Amino acid sequence: MSSPICSICRFWHSSIGKKIVVALTGAFLVLFLAGHLTGNMLIFQSSHDFNEYAHFLHTMAHGWGIWVFRILLLGSLVLHVLATIQLTIANRKARPVRYQKEATMVAPKSSRIMIVSGLTILSFVVFHILHYTVRVDGDLRLLADFGQNWAMTVAGFQNLLVVIFYVIAMALLCSHLSHGVAAIFQTLGIRTKKSSQSIKAFSKAFSTVIFVGFIAIPISIYFGFGREEMEATVKLVEEAHKAGLSSLPVVEKSH
Amino acid sequence: MLNLTLKVWRQKSATSEGVLETHDAKNIPLEASFLEMLDIVNERILNDGGEPIYFDHDCREGICGMCSLTINGIPHSKERGITACQLHMRKFKDGETIWIEPFRAKAFPLLRDLIVDRSAFDRIIASGGFIDVRTGAAQDANALPVAKTRSDAAMDAAACIGCGACVAACKNASAMLFVSAKAAHLNLLPQGAPEKDKRVLGMVRQMDAEGFGNCTNLYECEAVCPKEISVDNIARLNRDYATALAKEAAF
Amino acid sequence: MSLDSKIPDGPIEQKWTKHKMDSKLINPSNKRKFKILIVGTGLAGGSAAATLAEMGYQVECFCYQDSPRRAHSIAAQGGINAAKNYQNDGDSVHRLFYDTVKGGDFRAREANVYRLAEVSTNIIDQCTAQGVPFAREYGGLLANRSFGGAQVSRTFYARGQTGQQLLIGCYQALEKEISKGGVTLHPRTEMMDVVKVDGHAKGIVVRNLVTGKISSHAGDAVILATGGYSNVFFLSTNAMGCNVSAAMRANKQGAFFANPCYTQIHPTCIPVSGDYQSKLTLMSESLRNDGRIWAPKSKEDAAAIREGKKAAIDIAEEDRDYFLERKYPAFGNLAPRDVSSRAAKEACDDGRGVASTGLGVYLDFKDAIARLGEDVIRARYGNLFQMYEKIMGDNPYKTPMMIYPAVHYTMGGLWVDYNLQTTIPGLHCLGEANFSEHGANRLGASALMQGLADGYFVIPTTIGVYLATQNPGSVTTDAPEFKAIETDVKERINTLININGNRTVDSYHRELGLLVWDNCGMARSKESLELALKRIPEIREDFWKNVRIPGESDCLNGELEKAARVADFIEFAEIMCYDALQREESCGGHFRTEYQFTEDSQEVKEGRTQPGEALRRDDEFAYVAAWEFNGVGVPPTLHKEDLTFNDCKLAIRSYA
Questions:
Q1: What count of Cα atoms within 13 Å lies in the side-chain half-sphere of residue C272?
Q2: What is the mean pLDDT of residues C514-525?
Q3: Confidence of residue A251 (pLDDT cuts 50, 70, 90)
Q4: Binning pLDDT at 50, 70 and 90, where does residue C274 land?
Q5: Smallest CA–CA separation between B154 and chain C, in Å?
Q6: pLDDT for position A98
Q7: Is there a contact between A19 and A87 (Cβ–Cβ < 8 Å)?
Q8: pLDDT tens-digit profile of C529-562?
Q9: Residues of A whose CB is below 8 A from B99
Q10: How far is residue A97 from each of residues B17, B107, B170, C33, C427, measured CA to CA in Å?
């Protein structure tokens, strides 16, 4: 009866178990976001550092690192989404007849629309991966192939619709995190009345930093940051591509 | 005196269709309790040859946990720390419209009008919410000292009156506040320690089987709880459940 | 029929031990063949059900509430007594026994009370082991407080919810046995009648309150633990559903009803505010430690207050009548419950009441706040003040509270012998529903003790005395007696629902309540009781002609439930008044205005008591009055069980 496999099944099928899965995967994704934001901030430092960083990510542990990480990330995301969708379906079923007059005492809006914000973020993630990781846009792919990740990023945010979508998605992410981060502590059983205020404050601060940090990139780019350098790089890459080269010729930096 | 409009859920039985009926509540004294206001309305309905609005109630002093009305969308009303029977009409304004609905949850099937069946709670208790001690087998009460802080924390949790407002208020109709308070009351005491894991696993499994939803940490339950039971108990139950399951898997 | 109390021989300290030794035991393998039906799941019924199931009996349990945990035992606030002597203040089993007999004004059976005091210590052990979170001291040991004027600290408590915590303990034990299969629970089920086969109680007929289905249940013994009858007064501190029906049905089947006139009035309740009022709320008596009780001296001031033209603070100090301090200077505001209650009633009867209904006096904290400061008062009574403010909308720190006495416990109940068996063989009765331990007056924190003593420790032993004489499972619901009672019950319900008159059930209940409150309430007289006995049959007749119950009987129908209960209350009220009429003395919760000490009494002159105190007449009335039902509208027959006091000396109750 109580073989370890059985226990994992039971864990998954119990409401608390599934929530713990959501919390643990959520915590991993939250940490990833923190790392992702820190790395992305290199955009504002210099194209060189940013490209180096991208190069490092792609080559660490002989190129295996990023794949291990991507698999972990994908796994977490799948579990997080699967568990929350199942929980939401169960939750809807738990109240088949709704109240005619709905009201709330304390729960903020953000906490009540987790599934909406979550699914929107999911669609954003798909778009984001197609945009910058798979690079369905040929021009961006070319830049990446030439190791010009900085220019690729800047080029990607020249479209107003893309920027708006990013901002909306980040706003929802902020809303999702402002409840989600605090909820991790409760679900993992490490929140108490005494720590609840600090946890709430941390959660709010964290989600605000994520929001501000991530929208800073598309907005500043849309309003002109790095456009000149990006256009120059694009020109160089196009020329090199026409010349049949697979990387940019090394140019001595002029002083 | 108040003149109010009531929008009351009426439903003859579990299987029949329910509707929100409108009733006038005229000349309601400010000193009357909410349930007495319903008594007055019922007396008039009866005198007009109708069937009264049925609702659960018993002690009318906020301890039996029988009354179970959702008032303007909030179980036991928006006043904190009281049951519906402790609500008084002076909290309302003349001319107001009041929505009165039953506690809604799949696990609380409706019986009639505003009366629901909360026996799911009893089945959860039967699945481990006790200390298995035979009558007459107990040692002297003072043989096992309990730190005051611990005993007070157990008492805080034990204050739960099992009304089900937590379920009714939860967006997901989750029973976690009830179950966690009941488990915490016994788990915190040394007398309850030997059965802790068994209790936690049993109660949570029964809770799931009853069709309650899942807690998404909105804390509405704590806000409506007439005894202001803390959601700290939920955190504790999450932890205890994971530990108990890990132990079950390992040993 | 003579009443045999079956009190064991021997010295009082050894009676219970000896009785346990002499009682026949049921073989463990035989126990599971016996089925016991228990009605009521409060402290007495719940603890009995759990314990009997643990012992191996098959138990079926019935309650009208949706869960056993909601029984009205839950509302007890103060605490539970036990002769633990943890405080080393000189308490003992014997002292608890003596206090209880004396507190009951020498109208209880000594042997029963001694047994109660004896098992009281086991109750605390049992409840603590179950996880009842009694208050503790910093050292981790159990805390005690002194309660109800006791000179020792023997009361165990769990904040202000001792009743709920004890009930949850016994409910959890009950749920444990349900999960093990020993108990079958029937919630939302009301007992409609007892079924006798060959003179023995062998089953009950019940109504499912959700489906309206009438069904029979057979067992080898029946236990009633259905609480008291305070709701005969309509307004009381009892829950709305509390009723006398099970006891009254049993009485009609031949179980004698003992001492129904003993009803306890609590002085510090929140007054009635209008005729819509559905129940009364009790506030802890501890308020009287610091509050001063008064009414205006003049009727004019009182009238002005009632009309809202004046407020309490407008009444000058010299125009206030601190009537308890004036009448009973030695005890002042701490005079006993019955004395304080009657004094408040007298002030109001005199036209000096202050609530809008004229039924209320002030409980003023002005002086205490001036002396101790608001913070000290808040620390002592904060939660009570808050409760008062919630209900009344007044701030008691600024304006005095209004209080008025209300009924909250009934000492009378079905007559039982030492084995808790009624005059119907096989029918047992526990807790507030029986009459046995409190005499004419119950002491604070003794109700919880009695319920649990009966359920956990007494009935599990004594029911064996009866069962040992029975062949298990000998009666099934196929017996014709069941069909006959079922038919009776159905006819009664059909009659009720088909009356289709023009008055609501509540209107009758209110009328009856007011009548018995006025004439058989805090003070009774031959005249008032005769008036009540004339009026009750009129109410009864009108009820059966004019009550209107809407809807059908085969579904959830709350009006029908209430109507059946009110019908029983009306019949019961008559017995209560007959009892009060025959008891020509005053004792405990029964005060006959004709029988009180006056200035001229020898005892008053000797300083042994005060004028206005109850005049007991031990020579003629030291007996239990047990009433046999003779038919509706026919006076019941009185049977007497003489009380003898060998271990307690009969004394005048005095509070000087």
A1: 20
A2: 95
A3: low
A4: confident
A5: 7
A6: 96
A7: yes
A8: 999 999 999 999 999 999 999 999 999 999 999 9
A9: 100-101
A10: 11, 12, 13, 46, 46
CB contact under 8 A, C559 and B147: no
3-state DSSP assignment of residue C39: strand
ipTM, interface predicted TM-score of the complex: 0.97
CA distances from residue A149 to A133, A162, A167, C343 in whole angstroms, order as listed? 10, 18, 21, 93
| Percent of chain C scoring above 70 in pLDDT | 99
Q: In sequence order, what DSSP letters do the residues of chain B get, joined into one string?
A: -EEEEEEEEEESSSSS-EEEEEEEEEEE-TTSBHHHHHHHHHHHHHHTT-PPPP---SSSSSSS----EEETTEET-SSTT--GGG-BGGGS-TT-EEEEEE---TTS-EEETTEE--HHHHHHHHTT-S----TT----GGGS---HHHHHHHHHHHT-----HHHHHSTT-B-HHHHHHHHHHHHTSGGGGGGHHHHHHHHHHHHHHTT-B---S--HHHHH-TT---THHHHHHHHHHHHHHHHHHH-
Contact criterion met (CB < 8 Å) for C69 and B122? yes
CATH class of B119-250: mainly alpha
Neighbours of chain A (3+ CB pairs under 8 A): B
Q: Minimal Cα distance from A87: which residue of B? A: B214
C430 confidence band (pLDDT: 50, 70, 90): very high
Query: What pLDDT is attached to residue A250?
Result: 66
C contact chains, 3+ CB pairs < 8 A: B
Query: pLDDT digit string (tens) for B104-149?
Result: 999 999 999 999 999 999 999 999 999 999 999 899 999 999 999 9
- pLDDT above 90 for C472: yes
Q: With an 8 Å Cβ cutoff, are B159 and C241 in contact?
A: no
Residue C306 has pLDDT above 60, yes or no: yes
Out of C249, C337, C535, C583, which one is annotated catalytic?
A: C337
**Does pLDDT of A255 surpass 60?**
no
CATH 3.90.700.10 residue ranges of chain C are 266-407
**Element of type H or E holding C35:** strand C35-39
Among candidates C274, C169, C222, C227, which has minimal Cα distance to C35? C222
Dihedral pair phi/psi, residue C235, rounded to 5°: -90, 120
Contact (Cβ atoms closer than 8 angstroms) between residue C52 and residue C225: no
Helix (H) or strand (E) holding C99: helix C93-103
Provide the pLDDT for residue C315: 94
Neighbours of C331 (CB within 10 A): 17
Under 8 Å between Cβ of C74 and C408? no
- Is there a catalytic annotation at residue C337? yes
CA distance A108 to chain B (A): 8
CATH code at B2-112: 3.10.20.30
Complete domains list, chain A, with CATH: 4-94+105-242 (1.20.1300.10)
Contact state of A94 with B231 under an 8 Å Cβ cutoff? no
Q: Given pLDDT bands bounded at 50, 70 and 90, which one contains residue C656?
A: very low
Segment 143-182 of chain B within 8 Å of chain C by CB: 144-148, 151, 154-155, 158-159, 161-162
Residue ranges per domain, chain B? 2-112, 119-250
> What confidence tier does C95 reach under pLDDT thresholds 50, 70, 90?
very high
Tell if the CB–CB gap between B220 and A105 is shorter than 8 Å: yes
Say which residues have a Cβ less than 8 Å from residue B13's Cβ, sequence separation at least 6: B111, B112, C555, C556
What dotted CATH number matches C266-407?
3.90.700.10
Q: Which CATH architecture has domain C482-642?
A: Up-down Bundle (1.20)
Q: What is the pLDDT of residues A13-45, one digit of tens each?
A: 999 999 999 999 999 999 999 999 999 999 999
A95, A117, A175, A203, best to mutate vs chain B, most B CBs in 10 Å: A95
